[in-house]
Amino acid sequence: MADQSDRPRPSQTTTSQRPVPRPHSGQSQPPGATPPLRRRSANRRRSQWRRWLGASPERRPATRRPQPAEVSEPGREPLHSPTASGRQPTVSPLTPNNVTPLRPRQRQVWPPRDKARTAPGTASPAGTRSRTARPPRRPSRKAPAPVLYAVRLMILGVGVAALAGTLLSVISPTEVQSPAPTASNVETSAAPSAPSRSRPGLTTPITLARSLDGLQAEIEELVSYTPGLTQSVFLLDLDTGNYVNLNGGEALPAASTIKVPILVAFLQAVDAGTVTLDQEMVMQSEQIVGGSGDMQVEPPGSSYSALEVATQMIINSDNTATNMVIDLLGGQESLNQLFRGWGLSSTVLRNPLPDLDGTNTTSTQDLVTVMAMVERGDLLTLRSRDRMMSIMQRTYTRTLIPAGLEDSAIAANKTGDIGEALGDVALVDTFNGRRYIMSSLVTRPHNDGRARELIRQTSQRAYQEMNRPLSSTGTPTESSGLDQTRQAVPQG
Q: What is the distance between the alpha carbons of residues 63 and 81, in angstroms, rounded to a whole number?
């Protein structure tokens, strides 16, 4: 019979235990079991982050993984039993078994603030950490007071200047519109009505540089071929100031060339604000005259804009339109006073157009002078100057000065033609870029056709002189004398 003492007693349990199986996802874990590896890693990372952020690590109750007990002999305690070593294990209930406990942070001990810091090169007292004295902080640099005051004053001055300029431009007397001229106050308001831009022309005459004697001799020779004709020529090179003056100051019948200073006076009134370009003008019966122009065929009471009337006065040399403009600007005496203010000593209006008797006079020098003042901006604004040149480039009669130019030249001209006198004034742009103004008036027997050819030949010779190639220094080359290829003016 087998010994029953070898059999295990019911009250005794086997020391070997099976490891607790790991639950699957979604299953609850039995109490006291070790969390899965993934969860433990997450807890470890969370504790590390909390320590890094300065917070205390999360405290979790300590769980001890059950260790498999080793099989021992009967009557003998297991090797890992707590009583085998004679002492109980010390397990903190707050520290996990698999987490290294935190070390307490050691605070650095610094010397008291009230005591002097250890000088460099000396030993620090025990238990303290030596610390070298830092140099004093450099104070921030600030701009000197005078510099700040100067900058502030400069900014203030710029602001005050801008405000003053704005106020002056608003209240400038040159922009104040004066009332339309009437018969009672025309003598007192005609001259002041001009804008301040025209004042330089009153005191600054056209500067003449050097006389072109060679060209003047050639023009005089052309006149000698036409007995019975008397020619007055004035030419001004706008680039150099060189000129030709052949009887330029002599007062001669103006014919329709006097319409050029009348057009300047009209545009000056537009700049002053006394006349507007779209202003309505009604043609009166006493203003309708014969001669050149097509407005004379319209019935009295016909209305036109001011710009249309002034344009017809130049491009079609309309005499009726000229009389309408003269009345709009205050009459003949008002315009004569304005002409004298410009320095035009020979330009005088005595009768309405067409003035077939030649009582209205001017000179070639006056015509060139007024065109030169307009060109350099003394009498008109740039906009009105461009409008004037645009009108004069569209004249219908171009058989005098423009007829002696090449096709590449640009001319803005106005002719005048009555029985005893023929004339033209033109601003010419040459092919080589030079610009000059030329005026020619010829007194003749009644409707003598040689006068037309004489002006054309004079214009051709002047253009050849002004259009000569420029030298390397930018000045025209010297003339070679009289043109051997020119044609003689027909006589008889």
A: 18
